[in-house]
Amino acid sequence: MLQSWTTTTLFALLTTVVxxxxxxxxxxxxxxxxxxxxxxxxxxxxxxxxxxxxxxxRQKGLDYLFNRTTGAGLTIIRNRIGSTDKDxxxxxxFGSPSGTPAYVWDNDDSGQVWLSQxxxxxxxxxxxxxxxxAPGFMKTNNNEANGxxxxxxxxxxxxxxDWRQAYANMLVQxxxxxxxxxxxVTHLGFLNEPDFVATYSSMQSDGNTAASFIPTLYxxxxxxxxxxxxxxCCDSIGWPGQRTMTSQLVNAGMEKYLSVITSHMYQxxxxxxxxxKLKTWQTEACDLNSRWCATWYSNGGPCEGLTWANKIHTGIxxxxxxxxxxxxxxxxxxxxxxxxxxxxxxxxxxxSGRLWAFAQWSRYVRPGAHRVSTSGTVNSVGYGAxxxxxxxxxxxxxxxxxxxxxxxxxxxxxxxTTSEAYLTDNSHTVASTPATLSGGxxxxxxxxxxxxTVQLNKAPALLSE
Length: 465
Ligand SMILES: *[C@@H]1O[C@H](CO)[C@@H](O)[C@H](O)[C@H]1NC(C)=O
Ligand SMILES: *[C@@H]1O[C@H](CO)[C@@H](O)[C@H](O)[C@H]1NC(C)=O
Ligand SMILES: *[C@@H]1O[C@H](CO)[C@@H](O)[C@H](O)[C@H]1NC(C)=O
Ligand SMILES: *[C@@H]1O[C@H](CO)[C@@H](O)[C@H](O)[C@H]1NC(C)=O
Ligand SMILES: *[C@@H]1O[C@H](CO)[C@@H](O)[C@H](O)[C@H]1NC(C)=O
What we know:
Layout: H1 7-19, E1 21-34, E2 37-41, H2 46-52, H3 55-66, E3 76-81, H4 112-121, E4 126-131, H5 164-180, E5 187-189, H6 207-211, H7 214-223, E6 230-236, H8 239-251, E7 260-264, E8 279-284, H9 305-318, E9 323-332, E10 340-344, E11 349-351, H10 353-362, E12 370-375, E13 381-387, E14 393-399, E15 405-412, E16 419-425, E17 428-432, E18 435-438, E19 441-446, E20 450-456
Parallel strand pairs: 1-15, 2-3, 2-9, 3-4, 4-5, 5-6, 6-7, 7-8, 8-9, 9-10
Antiparallel strand pairs: 1-12, 10-11, 12-13, 13-14, 14-20, 15-19, 16-17, 16-20, 18-19
Bound molecules: 2-acetamido-2-deoxy-beta-D-glucopyranose (NAG) (5 copies).
Keywords: Carbohydrate metabolism, Glycosidase, Hydrolase, Polysaccharide degradation, Signal, Xylan degradation
Pfam family, one: Glyco_hydro_59
Protein name: Xylanase
């Protein structure tokens, strides 16, 4: 058979395989979920550590996380509402729920007020404040650690009384302190991994238990005339657990009080939508077992940038997420852990491949953007398209395969007038790469093991950046 194939036929076949072009269509007129952004936390003293870092690495670290030109351009921070006698605004019991709480506010909050102000200077306006637990004296186990329940939630009463209103009052007081600090909290959560009993701050709940507290918290905010704080639930340890809790919340009628369903990914990544009309956020993610690395791609390991680019892609495009928040942002002298994006030894600063994975999204897919529908598949490449509030359009391509792909992007309901593209792979870091605009369509090459973000009709004010 081979003899009957001409050299020309073989050549044509090979070039089709190597540089064959796939066409996709982006339908700008059909909006899907709204995007709230991408972010990190500096909980458990890491904000204070960041603040105490020597000035040059500290500034570089802030730029890597939040600068939209030189860093990832993150747009969300997740702060921890403390529950220990060292970091809570309510460190001591006041006897009974009807007593008078003695709040303590140091205007520092373990460095998180500073972090919030720094983030704000870069334009971050989304602050998610989340409590890991109520103070111990409000709980069934009289301890802010080791699980236990909030006294008074369904099925869990205490001889000391029903502390639900006191816990809601404390959370609202925390919100007020942040308003006074000029960095208002926009999202408020009262649980963290309630399906995991930790030896540190932790409090148990399922969706039904949470439903016996949520209206109290909602009404307490309303009574304080704070109507612009979005309530979240439940920061489950994994997506399957949050799916179960969400169905309990929905059945209990909680969607009218809540704004965002929140989950972690330690026992299952977000891979398909959770059934709710509320937004969903991935609020804590990392690999807890690998050493810190700066690698973009080596073998698909859990510390690598491309691995995380693909997790973000899967979460946003396949699981309908509106936000993706990594665990920590910046840490000093912690080489044993890959749970943060930017490393420092207190002198130099090293960004990770994971930071650049976030940059490929967060610099171009901005808060208020809507994902839009697309059609067409590209071999080994996942992609999502987004319309920003400034009229620009971003399309993020994630190629987990070992071959380059050539893509022609056509549009419905949109006319591209300028096109740019940015590439991260093992030899590029958010570097400019060709995106050819012709006849209303854009052609771009997606190298192997790479992320390419195509940006169309960038706002004129940003064109010089
Ligand atoms: C970094 O160095 C400063 C002194 O410049 C010191 O105060 C701080 O504790 C150091 N940070 C860490 C995490 O070692
Ligand atoms: C981001 O970095 C650029 C380049 O260094 C700088 O001009 C700009 O002021 C920085 N933005 C912020 C908000 O600091
Ligand atoms: C809330 O606003 C109402 C109407 O403006 C006002 O009467 C009330 O005193 C306010 N409550 C608080 C707690 O500020
Ligand atoms: C929410 O409203 C309060 C007034 O109740 C205001 O002080 C605060 O700045 C607002 N928060 C945001 C994020 O705009
Ligand atoms: C995606 O999330 C939005 C809320 O952001 C919701 O209205 C919509 O129904 C969800 N879509 C799917 C397919 O779950």
